[in-house]
Backbone:
């Protein structure tokens, strides 16, 4: 069995239930462009921004992995390529961040804030679009639209990302 190659792993984080339509559309657009560029998309695997990320990865012909809060796959978004049921609830946010080369945050909720904080705290590069306003040392790269987000994320991926 050959190992698959990827340009890198990007977690797309944002609200699930109650997500804004613009955030879902931007997550879909960002994931589609990143997937088309060979990036593997990671997300929480459920609704809202996570669903947009899964749909975008599928539309871009790429791979998406959902790290689910539940112990089973029953609520996983159907467009995900792979699902990992963690049974960890919100604690799976830490797994999502640590598995990513870059975290892309779209919109905001309390769970989203935890992922943003964990990424900054653990030195995982972050790009943000319409989310929490934070300004610590090593603060995220704030962008104004999906196109700028994709360019920033691709620039932040480690050179030579490949088999991982």
Residues:
């Amino acid at each position: 069995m050959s190992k698959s190659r990827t340009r890198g792993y990007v977690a797309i984080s944002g609200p699930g239930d109650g997500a804004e339509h613009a955030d879902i559309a931007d997550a879909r657009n960002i994931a589609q462009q990143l997937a088309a560029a060979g990036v593997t998309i990671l997300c929480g695997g459920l609704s809202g921004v996570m669903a947009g990320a899964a749909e975008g990865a599928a539309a871009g012909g790429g791979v998406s992995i959902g790290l689910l809060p539940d112990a089973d796959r029953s609520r996983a978004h159907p467009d995900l390529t792979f699902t990992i049921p963690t049974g960890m609830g919100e604690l799976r946010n830490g797994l999502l961040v640590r598995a990513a080369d870059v975290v892309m945050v779209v919109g905001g909720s309390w769970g989203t804030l935890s992922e943003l904080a964990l990424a900054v705290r653990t030195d995982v590069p972050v790009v943000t679009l319409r989310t929490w306003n934070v300004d610590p040392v090593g603060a995220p790269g704030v962008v104004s639209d999906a196109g700028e987000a994709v360019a920033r994320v691709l620039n932040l991926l480690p050179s030579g990302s490949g088999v991982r």
Summary: The mean pLDDT is 90. The first helix runs from residue 21 to 36.
